[in-house]
Amino acid sequence: MSSTDVVALILEDHRRMEDLFRTMRNAQADRSAALGEFAQLLIAHSSAEEDEVYPALRRYKNVDGDDVDHSVHEHREANEALLALLEVEDTGSEEWDERLEDLVTAVNHHADEEERTLLNDARENVTADRRSQLGQAFRTARAKYLGDDCGDLGKVRELVGAAGK
What confidence tens digit (pLDDT) does each residue in 25-62 have? Predict the structure, then answer.
């Protein structure tokens, strides 16, 4: 992570998630390790967005608040798909492959929409200085979540359970 622009940082995470999907789809790869890294990244990334980025973007009149709400909803869907995959013990099973594809679909759908809506809006309507400030806040929050082992199965279960209430 070399940039401090929040848009660039989010895009970097999206590309890393795509790399991890490729690894998880490879039956010869260490799927379990890739899933562990993915789980940490997804939860830290989405939590940092919801804590630091989305509330700030919501304040801009040219950023659609409904897009922010929709992104939060899609984070919940991705977290549920992640939990379903984490709960499959055999990484070589058909069930694991099916749950992986559910996760890929949820995350790629969200990333694509977020890139076309919120991130484009942020690029066009938020000053470079403010994007840098948001990037630093995003980075700090993301690091805190990663340090707390946020992708641990038990923590993902808690997160999904709390979101369902």
Answer: 999 999 999 999 999 999 999 999 999 999 998 888 77
pTM of the predicted model as reported, rounded to 2 decimal places: 0.94
How far, in Å, CA of 22 to CA of 31, rounded? 10
Q: In whole angstroms, what is the distance from residue 110 CA to residue 67 CA?
A: 11
**3-state secondary structure labels for all residues of the chain:** CCCCCHHHHHHHHHHHHHHHHHHHHCCCCCHHHHHHHHHHHHHHHHHHHHHHHHHHHHCCCCCCHHHHHHHHHHHHHHHHHHHHHHCCCCCCCHHHHHHHHHHHHHHHHHHHHHHHCHHHHHHHHCCHHHHHHHHHHHHHHHHHHHHCCCCCHHHHHHHHHHHCC
